[in-house]
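Re: folding output
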Amino acid sequence: MKNKHRTIGNIFLITGSVLIGGAVILIVTNMVLSNNLKKETGMIVEDIKAEISQRTADDPVNDTDGSRSPALYDSELEVAVIDDCPYDGYLTVPAIELEMAVFDTWNDDYLRKSACRYYGSPYTDDLVIAGHNYKSGFGKLKKLSPGDKVFFTDMNGRVTRYIVEVIEVLDGTAVEEMITGDWDLSLYTCTYGGKSRLTVRCRKA
């Protein structure tokens, strides 16, 4: 009987050790990926800013009060290819000290590097941007509050200003609800476990 209890105890001990080890590996992996994301997107943002500066050096589209060129205001979202990757611009969220490049499309490789446009455009008031929930990335979204400001800067240097209105959690399968809601900008990331989507809804300022 003692041997049986000892065997059961050993099984629980081994199982617990494996689970703890797996959790540690997961935490360490997320930390490494988060640090890589912070470094990667920081470098990309600098490249995007350099591209924007070059484009607007002779014909700036934004002055200090944020006025826009009427001709560019009606144009489609312009994509710039930098190091063989397509970008729409970059996202800035001062309240959580977040600044991320925005890829024009999304896939797993791009999401590991920065945020991605999932749907829509700032010009059609239905822009949806996705990002991984790494600590240095969209994992910060949960710290936002209604009234916080969000800025999207396109490749022509034009800044679209938004105000956070609602923070909600959607089911992971609620694709239509994500893209058809009456919001000018939606930022979303997976919750821990990946079954739901933390979503920040914004209106144009």
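--- second protein (sequence, then structure) ---
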Amino acid sequence: MSATPDLTLWGVGTSRTIRPHWAMHELGLSYKVKPIGPRTGETKTAEYTRLNPRQKIPLLQDGDFCIGESAAIVAYLSRTYSTPDRSLIPETQRELAAWLEWCFFIVAELDSTSLYVMRRHRADALGHIYGVAPEVVAQAGEYFRQQLRHVEVALADGRTFLMGDQFTSADILLTTCLDWAVAYGVCICDNAQPYLERIQSRAAYQQAVAANVPVAPITPAAAKV
């Protein structure tokens, strides 16, 4: 790991781009921002396509290394730049396994299977591309609430964060999904609401929200990716 990392983050304006912004603020890292947005044409330029042929945001450049996918970026930052004073990842093997389980669960069940399905079929989101389907949206919202019960059980034992007393990048993934769900009018469980409010009070979260604001306004249809 370089003593002075050369970090550049491509992407702002979505529930997924905020994740690496937040992780870097939690870790106290300095980085440059390329404030490109989704579905603006900016991800399809020759320059960006060379870096990320999938033409998606976010993308992290760490020197000559590039990595995409928000959860993968956050995991990379957590493994590479955590310190004893600022760590986003557990230390023991079993805690690491539990952390991975939470990360995979959040990305697969809450984000991709639930919230992004809603985004694809909402009239005010990507329905014009994938087809407006109110019943699909309603079922995806219900599935989100069903899966969120696992979070409710975990938080019911009085723990502060998903991993107990330690804030980790799993909390970053969960909070962005909860924010997204609230924006879509999905009710979150009783234990998740105070958890969300507690996490939103973190200085790094608020700094990330500010850093994730697009330079120019984006359309409502591009607000969630």
